[in-house]
Amino acid sequence: MRSPVPSQRKPQGIYHVVKGGENLFRIGKAYDLAYQELARINRIPDPHQIHVGQRIFIPGATRQLPVEIITPLKATLERPSLPDQGEQGKEGFIWPVAGNVTSKFGPRGETFHDGIDISAPEGSPIRAIENGEVIYSDQLRGYGNLVIIRHPGGFASVYAHNQSNLVREGQKVARGDVIGEVGSTGRASAPHLHFEIRKDNIAQNPLYYLPQS
To answer: What is the dihedral of CA 73, 26, 47, 52, to 10 degrees?
Structure first.
């Protein structure tokens, strides 16, 4: 008598549907799983690049859990709504300021860094990375003087810790326009620009979109 072939049991778990403002690091934290493990299970080559509506398999979970979104920019970005001489990157974006990247995008200890930090002398001009409309120009706790610009294609750019903002909400800006000056307002120990690129309100790695030096 032939032995029955053992059936391959489907792994237990659920699919988590990605919502605006979530990333793999915070999804993993909600389910007590390492983001690297989630990336491996779901065959995600770059754990920093997920999108709204994407289904992430969570092994061992029985229901979808809320994911903590630790950013005061979420509500701001959901509000209704002359080229620089440097080389352009993906989407036509340019570097917002000349300087050195001192902190990159991604997990940083127990937190997640939603952008990059670019060191530059205080007062250095900050430029819009692309044509768009200013949707925020004011102070925000932790970020100091902050400018947010909405761009075509669901993109937004974020410029924080500015010494001063030189644009107002509702103002149209062109790629390369000076929108502020580098400073150290908010939670900053030295002059630098905290810079973010968001797509559909999800933080992206800016280095994927800025031209390579």
So the answer is: -60
Domain at 13-59: CATH code: 3.10.350.10
The model's pTM is 0.63
CA dist 65 and 95 (Å) reads 37
What is the spatial distance between Cα 160 and Cα 143, in angstroms, rounded to a whole number? 5
For the domain bounded by 73-208, which CATH number is listed? 2.70.70.10
Those residues with Cβ within 8 angstroms of residue 153's Cβ, 6 or more apart along the chain or in another chain: 91, 199
CA Rg, the chain, in Å? Answer: 20
Contact between 160 and 141 (Cβ < 8 Å) = no
Per-residue model confidence as pLDDT tens digits over 85-142: 334 455 579 999 999 999 888 777 667 788 999 999 999 999 999 999 998 898 888 8
CA distance 113 to 6: 46
Which residue ranges make up each domain of the chain?
13-59, 73-208
60 secondary structure, DSSP code: T
Cα 77 to Cα 43: distance, rounded to the nearest angstrom: 30
